[in-house]
Design goal:
Blueprint lengths: L3 E8 L6 H4 L11 H4 L24 E4 L12 H8 L4 E4 L4 H10 L3 E3 L3 H4 L5 E5 L4 E4 L5 E3 L5 H9 L2 H10 L4
Parallel strand pairs: 1-2, 2-3, 3-4
Antiparallel strand pairs: 1-5, 5-6, 6-7
Helix pairs in contact: 6-7
Length: 175
């Protein structure tokens, strides 16, 4: 997995709930990122309604306020949908602990940063260093730092998620 990521950011508010990231009618669908990305974020903003409403903008990062992914649902559908839509990382002030764990299990980096929304607007190009937590806004030249992604989280992401990671550990005789 790349440790230095680049791409375009979408900036959202606080309390972006799991049931808005993937609406309930899509919860029974298989965990196929290419199918789920068609409907991801449709409940967050009217501009994302309709098939591929979010994906068509080509965002690589979501920058959000507090409680990203909250709302009491632990379903993996939002994470898989975000990944299918091309999201490389989510940067937020805080996360629902359940979605944070879903992100780790699926290999999607979640970075905690209290100041990121202060330096980023939607459409800005970012460079995010997962090892150091440094976030550079390539559009306006501003920088901030997030908590870096833990090594074991990077290992899970490199393996393609928690299940492939565990299988690899078993195959190597480490478990």
């Amino acid at each position: 997995m790349e440790k230095l990521l680049r791409g375009k950011a979408w900036v959202g508010g606080k309390d972006i709930y799991a049931f808005d990231m993937i609406r309930q009618e899509h919860w029974a669908k298989p965990l196929d990122p290419q199918e789920l990305c068609k409907w991801v974020m449709a409940g967050v903003s009217p501009e994302f309604e309709g098939e591929n409403g979010f994906k068509k903008f080509g965002y690589s990062f979501i920058v959000a306020g507090s409680n990203f992914g909250g709302g009491g649902k632990t379903i993996e559908h939002p994470i898989r949908g975000l990944m299918g839509a091309g999201i490389k990382a989510v940067i937020a002030e805080s996360f629902s602990r359940l979605q944070f764990r879903n992100a780790i299990n699926n290999g999607l980096p979640f970075l905690t940063c209290k100041s990121c929304r202060d330096i980023v607007t939607t459409g800005d190009e970012l460079e995010v260093d997962l090892e150091t937590g440094r976030i550079r806004n390539l559009t306006n030249g501003k920088e901030t730092t997030a908590a870096p992604v833990a090594d074991f989280v990077n290992e899970i992401a490199e393996a393609g998620g928690l299940i492939p990671y565990v299988k690899k550990q078993i195959a190597e005789g480490k478990i």
